[in-house]
């Protein structure tokens, strides 16, 4: 019988039995045709791959991630994930949507269509994430209809404003949820529900949100699974206790692994979803279970019934791996064609200006001066208790602490204190909003950093210990039309230009990784202590991530869902 390709003598992963079986595999028209004992005596193949008992594993599938977190274009991202064995992803482009609205989503989709990896998309559901910030664009119900007509959408992306969903039946997020449930009842709805338990958790489920990818605890996982919620486990949730729970409880059908946000330097050094798979194995999870959670369950969750399995009729996406523990990927096949071999050259083709010209002119903000960093307060001279954002290593959540600072001539004397200043400036030319706060903890102890890579609104965020450095860092970013800049004593120490919407680079992955690595080391040399320095900084303006954050409209108590003043009222 004539076929396109025959893989012989492979240890093939059987998803249905969750075990490896020595088999031959036939491929026809980019799909698996046969898995079993029949070999070259029966099939006449154009190409024969002798697997030499290597492990044959379905292409890995990541169903919750943001390409923009890696600060690169879809083409660059595809290049990076293919060599790491990831053949299908479901990214949610809510960062580009916050900058450009529906056009940002459509341009990301357009930039993905010629990529080697399959990129389906999640509709950004929370743009803006809250009503307490200014963004460049928004996603409305009419936009959702338009995006669903493309056929490239797999789900409604993470519902982030969980507080409003629970407390405000008329809020925009509830309007979207009700519209989806009425008009698209089969559409998957993804969630972002940190720390919710008991009644609040089930209120979210009642609203239609039935997954969570945020930082987990064993108690939270038990309640989520018992209530019918699907879990998407990212690396920060991979503790010994959680891995033990996932291994020892009968929950294989209720979770998968996802990456969510991966910095470019981390991506370049460790990989992507394959890194989580390997880590799970090294933490004691049986390889068969870890592979299941990176192939079968994510495909099932997104109703992608044509992949994630090596079986007749499924898309022939697969990897060849010689050792499961080290999980070094030797070959990757997409639609039955080899797209990566560890002994052959693998080079990225880089293209410039792959987005509309307007995407390179998105910073509408005049250069800043010393006056922009004055904290004016209508209070008499004296000492007052102030709210302070405290950053701690180990989490992107912050704490609210209080301390007493002095006010002189209507200005906060923050430079005389041990605390840094954090300020954010609306960058879209809409209203000129700006807000100031105080910051402490595991942050820089000197110098300044400015960035337009600030989730999710991507306004200009500046942190520093002296005004001169803050001005220089901010203006460098403004002049560059976006990016990240670190300054000390009037000298630019490190920068990452992000000219596409102020959040993406068109440089090769290797270059962006080097820039971010240098920036991270520089920030650490200035005192920043965090497992993910850039994400820690960028989420200080994320008003759906507990506990005290800041947007262009002011300080926000996330758990209360309201603005709070810098000075604590008696």
What do these coordinates show?
The protein is globular. The chain contains 16 helices and 29 strands. The longest helix has 17 residues, at 509-525. By secondary structure, the protein is of the alpha/beta class. The chain has a 9-stranded mixed sheet with strand order 20-19-18-22-21-24-23-25-26. Strands 1, 2, 3, 4, 5, 15, 16 and 17 form an 8-stranded mixed sheet that branches. 25% of the residues lie in helices and 28% in strands. Strand 23 and strand 24 form a beta hairpin. The N and C termini lie far apart (84 Å).
SS content category:
alpha/beta
Q: Would you tell me the overall average pLDDT? A: 96
Major β-sheet annotation: 9 strands, mixed
Provide the low-confidence segments as ranges.
Answer: none
- What is the overall shape? globular
Percentage beta strand:
25-35%
- Could you give the order of strands across the largest sheet? 20-19-18-22-21-24-23-25-26
Please report the total strand number as a whole number: 29
Our count of helices gives 16
Radius of gyration (Å): 25 Å
Residues in helix, %: 25-40%
Distance between the termini: 84 Å
């Amino acid at each position: 019988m004539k076929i396109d390709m025959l893989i012989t003598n492979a240890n093939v992963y059987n998803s249905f039995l969750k075990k490896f079986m020595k088999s031959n595999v036939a491929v026809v028209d980019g799909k698996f045709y046969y898995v079993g004992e029949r070999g070259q005596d029966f099939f006449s193949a154009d190409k024969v791959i002798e697997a030499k008992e290597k492990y044959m594993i379905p292409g890995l599938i990541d169903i919750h991630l943001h390409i923009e977190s890696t600060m690169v274009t879809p083409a660059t991202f595809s290049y990076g994930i293919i060599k790491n064995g990831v053949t299908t992803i479901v990214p949610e482009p809510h960062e580009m949507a916050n900058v450009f609205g529906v056009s940002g989503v459509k341009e990301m989709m357009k930039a993905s269509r010629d990529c080697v990896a399959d990129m389906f998309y999640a509709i950004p559901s929370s743009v803006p994430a809250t009503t307490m910030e200014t963004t460049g664009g928004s996603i409305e119900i009419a936009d959702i209809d338009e995006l669903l007509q493309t056929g490239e959408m797999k789900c409604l992306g993470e519902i982030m404003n969980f507080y409003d969903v629970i407390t405000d039946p008329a809020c925009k997020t509830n309007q979207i949820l009700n519209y989806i449930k009425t008009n698209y009842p089969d559409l998957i709805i993804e969630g972002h529900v940190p720390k919710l338990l008991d009644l609040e958790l089930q209120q979210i489920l009642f609203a239609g949100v039935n997954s969570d990818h945020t930082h987990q605890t064993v108690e939270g996982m038990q309640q989520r699974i018992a209530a019918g919620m699907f879990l998407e486990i990212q690396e920060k949730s991979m503790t010994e206790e959680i891995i033990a729970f996932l291994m020892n409880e009968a929950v294989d059908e209720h979770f998968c692994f996802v990456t969510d946000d991966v910095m470019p330097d981390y991506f370049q050094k460790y990989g992507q979803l394959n890194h989580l798979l390997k880590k799970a194995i090294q933490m004691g999870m049986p390889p068969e279970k870890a592979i299941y959670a990176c192939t079968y369950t994510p495909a099932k969750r997104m109703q992608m019934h044509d992949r994630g399995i090596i079986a007749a009729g499924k898309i022939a996406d697969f990897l060849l791996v010689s050792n499961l523990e080290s999980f070094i990927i030797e070959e990757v096949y997409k639609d039955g064609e080899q797209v990566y071999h560890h002994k052959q050259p693998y080079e990225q083709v880089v293209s410039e200006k792959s987005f509309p010209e307007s995407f390179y002119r998105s910073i509408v903000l005049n250069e800043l001066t010393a006056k922009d960093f004055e904290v004016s307060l209508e209070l008499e001279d004296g000492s007052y208790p102030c709210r302070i954002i405290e950053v701690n290593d180990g989490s992107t959540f912050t704490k609210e602490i209080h301390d007493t600072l002095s006010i002189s001539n209507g200005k906060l004397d923050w430079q005389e204190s041990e605390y840094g200043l954090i300020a954010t400036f609306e960058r879209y030319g809409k209203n000129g909003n700006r807000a100031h706060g105080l910051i402490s903890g595991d942050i820089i102890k000197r110098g300044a950093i400015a960035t337009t890579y600030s989730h999710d609104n991507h306004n200009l965020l500046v942190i520093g210990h002296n005004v001169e450095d803050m001005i220089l860092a901010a203006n460098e970013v403004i002049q560059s039309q976006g990016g990240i800049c670190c300054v000390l004593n009037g000298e630019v120490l490190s920068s990452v230009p992000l000219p596409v919407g102020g959040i993406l680079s068109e440089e090769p992955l290797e270059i962006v990784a080097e820039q971010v690595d240098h920036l991270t080391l520089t920030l650490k040399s200035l005192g920043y202590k965090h497992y993910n320095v850039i994400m820690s900084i960028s989420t200080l303006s994320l008003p759906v991530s507990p506990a005290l954050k800041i947007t262009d409209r002011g300080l926000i108590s996330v758990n209360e869902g309201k603005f709070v003043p810098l000075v604590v009222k008696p």
